[in-house]
């Protein structure tokens, strides 16, 4: 159905593909010989997505969060995608705002700047002032964007259904990517979802044992004015992180010292999100990190978030230590624990791949190691070994990569491992003792007491069963039934062969010594029975296909 409904869009896609020179699709669409399908080069793929429009730019941004599927070259290229588009006219935006407000616009806002401060593919943001004087930011959904997105989603899902039937589609998990993209895009159309994420992040970061929460800001949401198509939040006055001029600050701090403090603040805030809260801002690129006029740091745009369950957090914490120790064997074991499915994996090959990957870092100073690059390489090795990892591993790796990249640009003197070493130590302490060490020690003592009371009785029961010969072992061997049937078949055929041979030999002996016609007749009967049994045996062997 989608093919007939989206013919104009299909034609446009084909034109874009041909114009950008994707060799495989060019041969396929022009009737030439099509080799094994391959993705276009990173630059060509980016150009195709940009030419196809905002929805496909969003798809590229999603793909940039999946280093578990794509190589580093694709991730780096797609990470530069920005969905900056021309703004919608104020008259159209005003109509949307009025429809979303419960009260007249004039009774809600004293002023609204008709010129947007930012315009994206789904929404644009305006600065406004409430009637009570508070400065706010209005994020307004573009008129008609929901209809456009629904049409493109139908087309993408239809194409994914077709491509998923090929080896190419299965290799790159086209179906799962399309489903993930569809859910993410539909969720972006509901601003109450982003508002909820913002509130949760704000609550989580309002307390910490690693940093001063007053130095980190997440905008307050005005829920009485927020709807699915209108997000109203606190206005934060500042500049993008990397544009900050610390030399002109008013707090009297040395710029180098302040850069170090801000870098430490960011690492500690994001490590808390990743390894303690399990709920993290998944898009910390320079445009979403603001340096405010009062010297604080703000996190903006909580539309893309990630989640990690406690088990995954523990595995990833151990992975940090394995990377620091360059322990290939432990990296392999932890990767298998993270795997989505229990598909067979050759552990020795996985360990060897990790060993080759980590070997190049053995003589490199810790200060020179790019930690996020190692995470990407670990995901690449897992992908090469056909290990399917959860999609949130891509968001996790992308978040760390963005964080480290911004931090190194902002503070060239950054020593990554000096920043994370105390955090890793505290994380392991928390895993061993928990948030309440006394309670954890008491629980452990109770477990030891219970074990000490139960163990003698259990040992006594075991010894009693052994001495009384009542101990039974239940073993389950896979494939044993098939082996038994095969051996039974072989034994039956061997028995028939012996029987046929015996009948033939008996008939031959009787024939040589036959004195009467009755004995000669018996000999003929034995030969006939032996022939029939032999013929049946040959036919059964031929029908089983196991003649060889």
TrEMBL record:
Q: Which PANTHER family match?
A: CHAPERONE-ACTIVITY OF BC1 COMPLEX CABC1 -RELATED (PTHR10566), PROTEIN ACTIVITY OF BC1 COMPLEX KINASE 7, CHLOROPLASTIC (PTHR10566:SF113)
Which UniProt keywords are given for this protein, alphabetically ordered? Answer: Membrane, Transmembrane, Transmembrane helix
In the record, the note on similarity to other proteins reads: Belongs to the protein kinase superfamily. ADCK protein kinase family.
Task: Print the organism lineage.
Answer: Bacteria, Bacillati, Cyanobacteriota, Cyanophyceae, Nostocales
Q: Tell me which species this is from.
A: Nostoc minutum NIES-26
**Pfam families attached here?**
ABC1 (PF03109)
- ABC1 atypical kinase-like domain residues: 81-334
**What protein am I looking at?**
ABC transporter
Query: Origin, by domain of life?
Result: Bacteria
Q: Where are the transmembrane segments?
A: 494-512, 518-542
